[in-house]
Amino acid sequence: MAGAVAPKRQDTRKFFENLSGAGKSIGVLTSGGDAQGMNAAVRAVVRMGIYVGAKVYFIHEGYQGMVDGGDNIKEATWESVSSMLQVGGTVIGSARCKEFRTHEGRLKAAHNLVERGITNLCVIGGDGSLTGANLFREEWSGLLDELVQQGLISEEAARTNSVLHIVGMVGSIDNDFCGTDMTIGTDSALHRIIEVVDAIMTTAQSHQRTFVLEVMGRHCGYLALVSALACGADWVFFPEMPPEDGWEDNMCQKLSENRADKKRLNIIIVAEGAIDCHNKAITPDYIKELVVRCLGFDTRVTILGHVQRGGTPSAFDRILASRMGVEAVLALLEASASTPACVVSLVGNQAVRLPLMECVQMTQEVQKAMDEKKFEEAVRLRGRSFENNLSTYRLLSYRKADSELPNGEEVAGDEEQFNSSFNVAVLNVGAPAAGMNAAVRSAVRVGITEGHKMFAVNDGFEGFYKGQIKEIKWGDVGGWTGQGGSLLGTKRTLPGKHLDKIAEQIRIHNISALLVIGGFEAFESLLQLYEARADYEELCIPMCMLPATISNNVPGTDLSIGADTSLNAIVETCDRIKQSASGTKRRVFIIETMGGYCGYLATVGGLAAGADTVYIYEEPFDIRDLQANVEHLTQKMKTSIQRGLVLRNENCNENFTTDFVYQLYTEEGRGVFDCRKNILGHMQQGGAPSPFDRNFGTKVAAKAIQWITRTLKDSYKGGRVFANSEDTACLLGMRRRAMVFQPVAQLRDETDFVHRIPKEQWWLKLRPLMKILAKYKTSYDVSDSGQLEHVTRVRPKETNTSSTI
Predict the structure, then answer these.
(1) Which keywords does UniProt give here (predicted)?
(2) Does 9 show up as a binding residue in the annotation?
(3) Fewer Cβ atoms within 10 A, N terminus or C terminus of the chain?
């Protein structure tokens, strides 16, 4: 890892070197239902705690272990959390504990903590576990007084342990906690659901069957809603949106319409807590019986059950949990007697801290609103991530019949006749990325719903100038969400040399707007088209770009469609590679990742796979750094640690090649460990898109088409579209907490065109985190860490926000 300690610079950043944990003890426990990623959170808390000089204790079996004490509370070491990153569930155990709900139980727990001097608790669990922790904190001083009176602890012990600090992390596959976009485990549960749906689709296709799938979510429909979005389900039932009376007929009509449209299968997703508007449960068996009775379709029911809780955590959950774990330790170090108990969570791509009880109260209000049948209110309280998913689902589930739009012109009111229906072209540019097809499907369907005629361009701008442009209908994009690669075809050709022909094709097909989905080439293409507007009036139309590239190297966005799928491929392979060495002697793997000059995949993949060192172009390194890294790893391998992982971005250094690094480690590690090397190559670009990429692609494309519709209306003058201002050629990107449309002309200055990367990249802030978790001494900038905020209820309408998933 380039240079163990970053040089000190004079600036306004705040580093956590002055946040010492010396003399402090932190207890970490997992409670309630398990969730994939809890182990990654435990690992991060332990390593960050030890790093700052605190003692960290495992509290086994949740609150039960805290009440029982004894061997259930054990001091953790650096090595004791090795190799747990990739394990699902929770290694330290979780249990539902009735005793902790009683005063006597909490008194025992307090005694056990004081005996070990633990006054900082990190609780990973659902809202019940966190509420219990808060009650414990409120009672703490009273409990200590009782213990002193009973002679179980000294007054001195009561004084030194007088304040209990609590930080929560939400581990729940249901994503049912207000104040956070994603809880630990949700993304992995979606992976399990989508794996099953993809598998079921092939058999359903063969037999023309209807499948009814029940997913978890007794009180929260997040898993049902997002998996329905991610697999393009025909119908979905979940608690927050009970169907109106007569839904049976509507559903059967839609299923038969889809079959008539050459669709060979139907998928219906039901949350286990689904109800109708009279509070009557809607069960998979009832739906099956209904479909068989009304339509005679061959119908099967699959109940996913605890499969959703199992399996290895996804890359997203490992990164989320690692970031949250480090943030939790920082929050504990900064806590004072007056700081309320807080939860660390994620909003957009930003870590935040929120008062625990505000979040719990809001979560309880959702249930109250649902009990009172105020379902719109419940959806609003769930937060913007849930709202965005629901509005996108509604957009995509409403299909206008072709008869309603004979030529795309018959729209309410004559005055709107000309400016409501336009020809909009969609194309993919650059290298293929998983999730591109989901974005195209969403764009086509939302465009049709908005009254436009949608045109598909094959093979990027090469196909554009050759005239490979044809109209694409609703049914043409059926089943596209789960397909990897680019079904439209994609090329790296830039439009610059073919502007005459492109302008001619725009004229021939009367194209009024352009949606370009792709990577760095797509960004360059849009810039070229924007700059050519002065010479070609045909290019004075609204243009929008969606970043889709595994390298995540496009300016103006924190995340790109396709990067998550690629990260999962890298992490899965690293897990397998590490496992291949189990039982052999100590071994170090040198792994090369893709990404061009952008170190995103290597860095974030390294964080998720538990790498010891990651070499990237953005952080220059020399032979002394390489030597320091080898020595550091050699020291580690002399302990109980068996395996090492070194990631190298393909273009990080032209001389220190993967072979060079491999040979260096082999030579220097002789007698301590042996080495193997692996070049991951194009497997990082293939595969079915992850739930995140399907969802992200679907949502950003829907948002882009709505922007195109608005921009078309604004630029429609004198019977034609004319858009030449810089804000009519935009890139839609995710910036920290919001989805933002940014003019490509303004992003030009933020870009390093030689190396095809943005000049500033947010993920570089994750590098110190990765180094700390790999036992390096480093500088960690905490000025960007979460400040305590409050849960917001009413969000301003005019901000253009969306969320990660």
Answers:
(1) Allosteric enzyme, ATP-binding, Cytoplasm, Glycolysis, Kinase, Magnesium, Metal-binding, Nucleotide-binding, Transferase
(2) no
(3) N
